[in-house]
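re: that complex we talked abt at group meeting.

here r the seqs, copy pasted straight from the sheet so there may be weird spacing, ignore it
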Amino acid sequence: MKTINNNLRLFWQGTVLSYVALFAWFRPVTYIASKILMPLAQMIFFTFLGSYASGGSNVDFYVIGNAIQITAVSGIFGVTMSIGGDRWAGTLAYLFGTPANRMMMFFGRAFMHVIDGAFGVVIALTWGALLFGVDFSQTNLSALGLTILVTTISTCGLGLLMGCLSLITANVMFVNNTVYFLLLIFSGANIAIDTLPNWMQAFSQILPLTRGIASARILIAGGSFAEVVPLLTSEAGIGIIYGWLGYFLFKWFEVQAKRKGSLETV
Amino acid sequence: MNIIEVQNLKRVYRATNGVIRRTTKEIVAVDDLSFDIKEGELFGLLGPNGAGKTTSVKVLATLLIPDAGQVRVKGLDIVKDANEVRKEIGFIFGGERGLYWRLSGNDNLRYFASLYHVAPEISKKRIPYLLELVGLKGRGDERVQGYSRGMKQRLHVARTLLHDPDILFLDEPTIGLDPVGAREFRDVIRNLQSEKKTILLTTHYMFEADSLSDRVAVIDKGLIVALDTPSALKKHVRDLSVVEIETFGIAPNVVEEIRKLPFVDSLSTREQDHRQILHVQTERGAEAVPDLMASLEGMRVGRVTVREPTLEDAYVRLVGGKA
Amino acid sequence: MKLKNLITYWRTALTVAEITLRHQWNDSFILFAILVQPMIIAILALFMLRDLGGEYAMFVVVGSGLTGLWSSLLFISGNSINNERRQGTLESLVALPTPFEVIIFGKNLANVVQSLISMSSSYILAALLFGYTLKMVSPLLFVGSVIISIFAFISFGLVIAPLFIIYRGIQQWQNAMEFPVYILAGFLFPIAMLPNWTTPISYVLPPYWAARALHETSTGTGDTEKIFFAWSMMLLFSVIDLFIASKLFKFMLYKARVDATLETV
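got the structure back, here u go
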């Protein structure tokens, strides 16, 4: 019982403290600019681009795709910075020096970003309804809510892996930005996956977001929860795999860092 | 002829704190400063941290606008004629920042040469000459990133000499250098003196000011407390001697008691390892030693020496034994 | 300003541009802004506009190149003064006989010219990967448009950089300014699709006129009269921007010398 309590506390502290530390330099204005307005403008841009191509017949396709994609702002950038932030601040050595449960410590860093990311998607979909008239009257909202949550969690899974890679590479922002933009191509947010060349389709299938976006589209068009269950299960599975890969990398990094004494310098 | 004239210079910093209840705090960095520097002179500005040395230099280098007073460089006003002043001066601020680390030393110099409007055909010859002058011959093609701190600081000197200014402001140029690096740097400054540059040097180090300066101004809290040649400044303490006593774990109240003794002119302490060295300035010289030892009775005392005063002692006396 | 000064300043600006390019050639942030992001946008647009036919490939090449131009102006030129301050070089750059705006002009010149890589790489991508035959309809007028656009972007950048320093409140919105200009300047779709009330905003954005000139000359959608009109608008805005910039720089530098903010961030 005591261990569980300890671990829960650790999870919570890792969560809140790392989030607070990350955004300590963030003023509310910066938060609104980077986490609400930037994704919104991006959604509007791609929606217009898409309707220019298709003559405006399938606005919903682009609004939904790009709204769900917004989860990657928190999932990739937020999570990576929460993990990498410790290294930049030089506190990683102290963390590795504690007996704390690594798993709690690790997954705790993603928790706030899941909430943050899901919140962002909801805002974006609301804008979609207001600006582009996306119709939610046929939608099973609780199933959509679950889709958003599952997709956000799985994207954060990828973020955890990226965050660990950021411990090894020097060009964190470069890698993150590139991955984020590649998702715009491969997740099906803007291009129907079945129109992509085969090798690209194969790549789409092993990424998070892809099935989440597909599921959201089905639900908003009036599909039933039963239809999207297989999609959501795979989406969750993919996220968990990425998260675990990240966790193993994190453990490996700790061992390597301790062996080589390169905590602060890698 | 006075090449630099500073009259009643005042500079205040205002720091605003708080988002909701804004409070403005004023810090007087330079209160009322007046001095002149003659052509070809090396003028030392000496003072404790926060005395206003760097602020004064930045005003002279056209980087800060004074709140009051007049500052003229070659007869030009540093506010109204800032651009003309900039052609005549060079400056360095101690430390290794302020260079493009991802570029080579040569590229750094070429860049600034162009910004100082030095014609390419002239800078082509001048850059190697300057690198040699500051002891970086053959290192110009390397990236600044790989330079030692001392090399970076010497590259700053080369940078500021590109347009061959008559006047140089050197703000704590040897700060953070190891003893060897600092000595090499002082040799560079001597080279500049022999080229008839007018130099304003600020420093923490007494012997540096002593060995390089023609005249020294000691400033404290933004005011000049003394201005003279190093030897004349030492005359302030000529009739004094310095007694240095090594103590182990002396209590502050004992120090204060000694300070109050009638024959003690001024007193400062310096922490060294586990010892405290007391510097007592007194007219009585060696005769004061027995009385001093009496005040220290029951305490562990190490070496006791009596010596002639240095510029540092003059300085300590001027700024009230704080150093 | 005397002619002799002008020549000296031009030479100085060129050296500044050259050194700037050398200094940042392997900066990963720049690589992303001028190469990776525009390429990905080009890939997206090429896929999305595929059904419109091959003649839209040239439109995509120019449009995605323009996104690279704007992003690098916003983030690299916009932060140029702040970056000097962070490196500790700002003081040395200000206390020089060269006016500070000439230095920033040179830096912007480097950034804008360097971001033309975006357009070239999109061109190569569309031609090689997607196999489009890309035809430039009026090559000479296109080159003219590129040169005038460079000038317009540099001038616009000279307003943005000091603005970000003087009013930090504006810079906080930097991240939110990237895509709206993509939208309002009509880089990849015509602004006719947007609500009417946004049109005046587009008209006062130099990137909008640059996009018009470059699109019209490359795809042949505009007559000479329209192209010259876009050129005139760009030149007009450049003159206005340079005028505003000269005031902003003067104010910024005076304020920095009063507030003692040249050194500290």
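couple things i noticed - Chain C has one domain: 3-259. The interface with chain A takes residues 28-29, 31-32, 36-37, 40-41, 43-45, 47-52, 169, 172-176, 178-180, 182-183, 188-190, 193-194 of chain C (CB under 8 Å).
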